[in-house]
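Fold these two proteins, one after the other.
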Amino acid sequence: MLESDLQINKNCYQIDIQQWGVPRVGTCYVVKSEKIFLIDAGTSQTTEKVLKTLEEFKIDPSSINAMIITHEHYDHGAGAAELLKKMPTTIVLASEKTAEILKDPSEFLETSKKHYGEAAGLVSPFPPVKNVEIIEEGDRIDLGEGVTLEVVTLPGHTPGSIGLFESKTKTFFAGDAVCNYNAQYEFYMPPSFPELFDYETYLKSLDKMLSYDLVYLCMGHFGTQEQPKAKQVLKKAAETAKDWKKIIVDIYGKTKSEEKVYNALLEKYGDNEYVKNFPELIRKTVLSQLIRGYVISLKL
């Protein structure tokens, strides 16, 4: 078991899916009471890691009652079909927009690969899931013994993004609605992947999460933060998003050049060890996508 596979509190567990084979990059979660729910499914390439960690937590995969997918992207939903082979009675829950992608991901997957360009091999296969039940804002899912999951719509990163708030432990599962935050290097990166990102609704979703009396903030990448750091991350995510907007609007608005924006962002943030650790192809692929998400959302 990795150091980043851990029990967060009495009812909640964190699983490091080792996305792209790298520790801490991708995360899914388990909420365990009388019923057991898995939150997010990783990619089709991380199934064995998820199953192995469940066993290490002494959770039989076949005992999981439901799997909730927080949003449309492949690194959260593409593992669902393979996991379900080991979870024959598990139901899949998602927002309406996410359910559409889960049922027929083919077109969405091709669009994702297009944006990854030369690094398209990082995008895992995305087998469809036939049966998905829709959950909506305000739904409260009872897991027993006072443990409930409140569904919270959090559009911005994607239109179908949702969060889940467990009030007994004050744990907020946010998917990718916050940011890509690496605590080891204190690095923040907006989740502005094209073509679903919407800047204004993203900021509103950050404000919405700040209104919750949360203790644990469980994010889809790099894991969990506990108060007081949790709300500091939410506030800093908004500040960083606004800084990126200023740079992108100024430079792209004048030059229409993603390359010049990329260089400007590297100049401001590129001395961070987290950025330096990535191969140039990966760094350029990811940052270029995040820039493109802003350009599309802001109609530059």
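Now the second one:
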Amino acid sequence: MEQNDQVVNLSQPDGHERFWDMRTGVEMSRGEFMQKIEAGDYPGYYLIGKNGGVIPSSNPTGDQNKLD
């Protein structure tokens, strides 16, 4: 499975508050997911500055449910 297909945003499109790892079945808060990205646990993801904050992001795949 491609890394960008691993985690989906469970919140509303602009919410980015809950995330689900499809491989492990683990649900995470945004903070938990961001910590794991920083630790290198999700190499296909990165943190970006947006609207004065920081959000997790991946490369766009065209699927509206995927992260940015």
